[in-house]
């Protein structure tokens, strides 16, 4: 039987470079590998598997063969980059849609992190220890007023075939429904990630309006 050629060092380097560019932390990265090639590390990937992972990461990172035109940043947006940019942005947006944070912009996220932890953006975006500290700080702050099941047993997630990122999307929607005192949609688990994003945004508007009414009462 012919030996299956393993991934080259060049492929492995490309995978880790794209992982960083895509803003994946270690948990999200391992979830992606499990979904794409049923692995948890690039160490023993075949060349074919590595190629599939590279192409998938390129899609996540928004990289294509054609040179992309840079769009001007929206007001308050920052060109945040690094392994923890994506997950921290997602948590900040979740907090905004749960009525915890009053400003959804990147500038507010960076200011919050520096105020609560003393960490500068360039550090927590790239340093693993600081990045994880920021993630936990955001989860804890949101948890002060909102009950969100951020984390789940890895084995259970594998059995259900969902990533931690999707689990958190579902958890945020369920928490929003509890805030609004209404049941979660019956088809919630069947919704696509795009549908969950739209639902989270829609419920977020209602949660914020509810919060404003309570402040005026």
UniProtKB/TrEMBL annotation:
Q: Which domain of life is it from?
A: Bacteria
InterPro entries hit by this protein: Phage_Mu_Gp16
Q: What is this protein called?
A: Regulatory protein GemA
Q: Which organism is it from?
A: Ancylobacter defluvii
Q: What is the lineage of its organism?
A: Bacteria, Pseudomonadati, Pseudomonadota, Alphaproteobacteria, Hyphomicrobiales
